[in-house]
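User: Now give one protein:

AI:
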Amino acid sequence: MKDIEERLLVEHQGQEDRMNELRHIEQEVVRTQEELVAVRPFFEEKLKQEESTTSRIRDCEHRLATLYKKQGRSSQYKSQKEKDVAVSKELKERTNILHKKTEQVKKLKGEIQELTGAIMDRSTDISDREQRVQELIAAAEESNQMFAEVKGKRDELQNQRNANWKAEEEKDSELERMQEDLRKKEKHLEAAVPRDINRGLLTVKRICNDHRIPGVHGPLIELFDCDEKFNTAVEVTAGNTLFHIVVDTDEIASKIIHYLNLEKGGRVSFLPLNQLKAKDTNYPNSDDAIPLLTRLKYNQKYNGPFFQIFGKVLLCRSLDVATTMSRQTQLDCVTMEGDQVNKRGALTGGYHDQRSSRLSYMKSMKELSSKIQEARDEGQAVKSTNQQVQKS
């Protein structure tokens, strides 16, 4: 917009300069025409003087000849000598008059020629200036057209920029709303986790960032997904092990624990991938009892930790089936409602509030994080478009 306004200013200034030049040329044309009008009577007068002088010379010559014829020599002069002197004197006078008239005629012709040349020059100059005026008028019209086009483009860009600003504000508002929802979900999840574990998770995250410790994959709860109908069974089976942190090696875990103890940063457990391996397990072939591990979606490189926690647990259709299967298979069993029967026959159960499910909070947080990232990408694209519009 700034470049356009500067070009418009230059075009406007150029147009004013051309209009000033046009007015100057028109003034010159008027002045030249006035000079021409002023000179023309003088020129015509000189022509008339020339014609009058020529006519008078002819008349004088004619009269002189007539007088010579009428005059008698004897009646005019007493002697031949007197006659010769008188004739010579008159001839000399006539010759001087003729010479003066000739010089005057010559001078008048020269002036006439000069005036004619001046008139032709003025006419040529007038023609050139009229052509220049036409060119300036055409340039002014072209500048006006260009100005209108640039102004239209400016208005179009302004409208586009306003629309982009509105879209950017809407994206920012949507992003802020989703971030607020994410903070609420995080608070709910924090409230569902023991305080020392939650503090430990936050401290571990900061320690890894401060000391740039690699090979830390995060809490187990962040590393898998499952259908919501299995949330209760998964949560009662895993308990707080959902917040055990998966690391590559036990050395990494020891290093983090060292910093954690120095800072007294809470309590955290680790699941080192190099120490945990999946084992072959004989599961019953029954539609009423299936391995709980098969209902979890996770990266296969985490097989060890997930088998450690869920590998020896059956998901049963009912409590009766769970009781029977725990005796037959020597595996822990859990129902969809969260009732547990361990391989020793102990039963655990009770009411579980689905609304405070930690897995539900985590799933919502993942979805919100994904949407927030998409909103940020879209907002950045809108901002980039705005910047391009402003540069244009």
